[in-house]
Each structure stands twice: as C-alpha cells, then as structure tokens.
Specification:
Layout (H helix, E strand, L loop, with lengths): L16 E6 H15 L3 E2 L1 E2 L1 H5 L3 H11 L3 E4 L2 H7 L7 E4 L7 H7 L3 E4 L2 H14 L4 E4 L11 H8 L10 E5 L11 H16 L4 E3 L16 E2 L21 E13 L4 E2 L5 E2 L4 E6 L27 E4 L2 E6 L7 E4 L13 E5 L5 H6 L5 H6 L5 E6 L4
Parallel strand pairs: 1-19, 2-10, 3-4, 4-5, 5-6, 6-7, 7-8, 8-9
Antiparallel strand pairs: 1-11, 11-14, 11-18, 12-13, 14-17, 15-16, 16-17
The structure holds pyridoxal-5'-phosphate (PLP).
C-alpha cells in the first residue's frame, strides 16, 4: 500500500518543495561585510531577483540593516525594488541602450555606462531631457564590460569630458578575486588605482565579495558584495557567512527495494544492499540539477560522488538520476520513522553548505541559487522564527 502524504503545515499544501529564507542571517552577513569593508562603504548586489531569493524582500531587509547602495543587472530589476529602498542609490550594471534612459529617470536609477557608445547615447539623452547621474565601468583586465583604460584617462580630463556626463562612481570588476594568489588581481588593482586617481573626487569601486578579502587597497570607496550576503563562501576559507537559504523537498513516497535491483532512468544505479528509497518532489525543473546525480550521470567522464540530502541527522545520497520533478534518495540508514512520506529532506542550507552541494554538480553556489525556479513555497523568517 502506498502511504498517503502527511501534510504537517497546511500552508505548504500543494507545494513539493520549500525555501526557508532567513532575513536575519542575510542582514548579519551584510553587517559582517560592511565591517570588513571599512573605511569603505558597503553596497549590496541584488541582481537576478536577489540571487534567486526575492529581490524586494532582500532589498527591504538590507535597507533596514542600513544599506543605501544597491546594484542590479537590468533597469527593470531596479524599478522593481525602487519603492523598497526609497532614498538609496540603485546602480544598473547592464546598461542596455537605447531604452534605459526613461526607466532610469522615472525610477531614479543610475546607469553604469560601459562603452564609449553608451556615453555618447547617454549624454545625448541628457542634453535633450536634462542632467541625470551615471556611473562609469572601466575594464581593467576582465574583457567583459567597460571602456578601456586609455579612454577612461582621457575622459577624466575635464576639458574633453562631454557636457552632461556626470559620473558619481567609477568602477571595475575583478576577474579572479576568488583566487587570491592570481597575478591578475594585482594588475587590475594597479590599473584601477590609476583610474581612481584620474577621477579624483568621484567615488570608486572595485571589489565583489572575495575581492573584499584581498586586502585594504582593494576596498576603495564602495564595495559590492553579492554572494557573501546570501550565504555563499566569500573567500573560500576564512570568511564565515551564515547560511541564508535552506531548500527542502517533500518525500512523496517511501519504497523498499532489494539488493541487485536498479533505480531510475537508465537503470543507472544497481543496489548493493536491500534499500529504503525516499522519492522526493524535486528535480531539475526546480534547479536541482541533473548533474547532481553523480555516478548516475557521470559529468564529462568524471566520477563525481553526487549530491546528498539531509534528514534525521544523516546525509542521504541520491540514488539513480535526478529527473525533471523527482529525485530518489537512499534513506536506508535513517532511523525508522524519521523519513516518511510528507517529511522534508534538506537539499542545501543549514546542514549542507550551498557551495558543497553546488560543487557536487560541477558548478558554483551562484548558479544553484539563481536556478531555483518558481515551484518552491518561499518562507521568509527573521531570527530563526
Ligand atoms: C555580480 C557582481 C558583483 C557581486 O559579485 P559576488 O561575487 O556575488 O560578490 C559585483 N560586481 C559586479 C560587476 C558584478 O557583476
């Protein structure tokens, strides 16, 4: 007989998975990064819907913690959070022109201009519609966004600077901040110091989360942490961020299978013992990636161990392949009654660091967070309540 799911929390009815998002931990992480950033000011990067956790809730919590500078990717994202952070500055990093001008004016956003073409278009728009602040991105070695060093130095010269060009921030982005010994860090620092000096009197910003741990010279006037706020490891070693999000999937069904039988698509896993299998309502459609299957789906030939879940005080490995809507876990070692239909298995969070789970899929916490999708019930809590 198939046991019926036990619905323990009525408000979760109909949801196969949930995210418990701890806004107090988020604020604590921001305060930690703020302290590490001193004497620089500390902003918050909340692009991609606040790294998948809900941009408006995240923005409001960080504003209450004292944050007054925010970075988003698109003008649409900026407009979405504007009313949460009334007197804060919101910088738009992906300056998509034409079209961005109207949104920047109506939602009071600061575009980060990143090419000479952008500057020309922006200053033309300002000549027609009136002055509006902007920021300037300079490429110091990443070859992604930003004007060249030479153009930046030329622009910094008051005489040649176009009328209506009013940068309130010059910024650049580090390519290798998560590898402290990488030579490019020091090269980018040197180049950006030249830019910051040339734009004397205008605020400067270089460092993302791991950049903040590279040393005081990397701080400049404003830091730009993202992942550390959301509980990712900021520098891979020393920075202890608090977990912010716990993802859990509900057990739909428990089944018993015999040694020698196989589990799931492709019969990828053959059981080495009589096993208890928890079938969970989570899959790659929820950003629980197929590559987490480990040996079930060897990742480009690598024999990765695959991800584990957590229930009843035990880590429980994935059996077989992660599918679109379901994943099977080996709960044989979990105490009787501690893993039953209706219970939740943790996928990452308080007991399973997000970076470890991401690594078992061959990716990074950033991708895991921003892939979560919209089938989760999102619970926002403060102070663990
Ligand atoms: C995403 C981003 C950040 C934040 O990076 P984290 O590694 O998440 O701290 C900072 N600056 C720029 C330009 C970005 O694109």
């Amino acid at each position: 007989m198939i046991p019926m799911p036990i619905i323990e929390e009525p408000e979760d009815e109909g949801y196969g998975a949930r995210l418990i998002i701890n806004l107090a931990a988020l604020s604590d992480n921001w305060r930690m990064m703020r302290d590490r950033s001193k004497p620089a000011r500390c902003s918050a990067v909340i692009k991609a819907d606040g790294y998948g956790l809900g941009a408006t809730r995240v923005a409001r919590a960080l504003y209450e913690a004292g944050c007054r500078d925010f970075f988003v990717a698109t003008a649409r994202e900026g407009a979405q959070v504007r009313h949460e952070v009334p007197d804060a500055r919101i910088f738009v990093m992906n300056c998509i022109l034409p079209g961005i001008e109207a949104t920047c004016r109506s939602a009071d956003l600061v575009p980060v201009l990143a090419s000479m073409e952008h500057i020309t278009q922006w200053t033309a728009a300002c000549a027609a519609n009136g002055e509006h602040p902007c920021a300037l991105q300079v490429d110091t070695g990443m070859n992604r966004l930003g004007i060249t060093m030479d153009d930046a130095i030329e622009l910094s010269d008051d005489v040649t600077r176009p009328a209506g060009f009013l940068p309130v921030l010059v910024m650049s982005h580090l390519a290798c901040a998560d590898q402290p010994d990488h030579l490019l860090n020091r090269q980018q620092l040197k180049r950006f110091q030249r830019v910051a000096n040339a734009f004397e009197g205008i605020d400067s910003s270089l460092s993302n989360s791991p950049g903040i741990f590279l040393g005081d010279p990397y701080l400049f006037d404003l830091t730009r942490p993202g992942i550390a706020l959301f509980g990712g490891s900021a520098d891979g070693k020393t920075a202890q961020t608090k977990p912010v999000v716990t993802a859990e999937a509900r057990i739909i069904s428990i089944r018993h299978a015999k040694r020698g039988e196989t589990v799931g698509y492709g019969a990828a896993t053959r059981l080495e013992r009589d096993s208890v299998i928890a079938v969970c309502s989570i899959g790659y459609a929820d950003g629980y990636m197929r590559s987490m299957s480990g040996a079930g789906v060897p990742l480009r030939g690598m024999k990765t161990p695959g991800a584990v879940g957590y229930i009843g005080g035990k880590q429980v490995p994935i059996l077989g392949r992660v599918t679109m809507d379901m994943t099977t876990f080996d709960v044989t070692d979990v105490a009787d009654g501690a893993a039953k239909a209706g219970d939740f298995i943790e996928l990452f969070g308080n007991n399973l660091p997000i970076d470890d789970v991401a690594a078992s899929a061959g990716t990074i916490g950033y991708e895991l967070l921003t892939s979560l999708g919209n089938r989760y019930r999102r619970h926002y809590i403060s102070n663990g309540v």
